[in-house]
Design a protein that fits this description.
By secondary structure, this protein is of the alpha+beta class. The chain has a single domain, classed as CpcT/CpeT domain (Lipocalin, Beta Barrel). The chain is built from 3 helices and 13 strands, in the order H-H-E-H-E-E-E-E-E-E-E-E-E-E-E-E. It has a 10-stranded antiparallel β-barrel with strand order 1-2-3-4-5-7-8-10-11-13.
Length: about 270
């Protein structure tokens, strides 16, 4: 992304952020803060699947999404570990992230996105009792410009990244965007990558991935077998804007074909998760 475009995007992002701030409801400091933030963290945590959507629409993959609370003794927000994989290859996640949820002002929430120093070393830790206990926020790297701002709307939190601030180069993209809806029953995450001219180069075209919550109080470890599926997945290091769920908003993507997408989007990658 050129410096002039980046400066323009940053200015636009600040204007959008200021607008969100000014439109935020007037609430006394502390009122509903912990309840709303706890709801957001609770609704984002769990195991989710887009299998139902994939069964109804072959343009979408069946994707498994896991988000586990981490570092629950910290007082600087709610922290979550995310792991996302094509369901046929549960032990080859294409996205691994850490999210930090904070309430910026009453009614306005931010999901900051961080990458891990060695994603491969922590695959599957979402199922443990104390995920990422050996790490701390100092070990992570924040994805600047990729945070998601959310507002509560009844029984949902709705938000997105700001303008084109989330830079990324996956498949020739210049930036990525992520739009997210979080409810008690699931998450909708629409992550897309765009070239410098604004054309979409990766991500779903029709709409976001619909992740339904899987209710299982005692999830069993998934099979150790790894499918030989030729579905292309990207490493966590190359994934970008996040979901999160995601999903990213991944991101360069995080939560990563469509044969009905616009002509500039390759059919084999249009709805592929990033």
């Amino acid at each position: 992304m050129t410096s002039s475009r980046r400066n323009h995007a940053r200015t636009l992002g600040l204007i959008v952020a200021a607008g969100i701030f000014l439109l935020a409801p007037i609430v006394r400091a502390g009122e509903n803060e912990s309840t709303d933030l706890d709801d957001l963290a609770s609704w984002m945590a769990g195991t989710f699947s887009s299998a139902v959507q994939a069964a109804e629409d072959p343009d979408f993959f069946a994707v498994s999404l896991h988000m586990a609370p981490i570092w629950t003794d910290r007082s600087d927000g709610r922290w979550l570990y995310l792991e996302q994989a094509v369901s046929e290859e549960p032990h080859r996640p294409y996205r691994q992230r850490v999210f930090r949820l904070v309430e910026l002002v009453p009614g306005l929430f931010e999901t900051q996105v961080f990458t891990l120093p060695d994603p491969g070393a922590v695959i599957g830790v979402w199922i443990s009792d104390d995920p990422l206990a050996e790490l701390s926020p100092d070990d992570l790297e924040e994805r600047d410009g990729c945070a998601i701002l959310l507002r509560r709307r009844g029984d949902s939190f709705i938000g997105s990244t700001l303008a084109s601030l989330c830079a990324g180069t996956l498949r020739g993209a210049a930036y990525a965007t992520s739009e997210v809806i979080v409810t008690p029953d699931g998450i909708v995450s629409w992550d897309r990558g765009f070239a410098d001219d604004g054309s979409q180069v990766w991500g779903a075209v029709k709409g976001g991935y619909v992740f339904d919550r899987i209710v299982d109080d005692n999830p069993a470890p998934e099979s150790e077998s790894v499918s030989e599926s030729e579905t292309e997945t990207e490493t966590a290091a190359e994934s970008g804007a996040e979901t999160g769920a995601g999903t990213e908003t991944e991101s360069d993507s995080d939560s990563e074909g469509n044969t009905e997408g616009p002509e500039e989007v390759a059919p084999e990658t249009a709805s592929q998760p990033e």
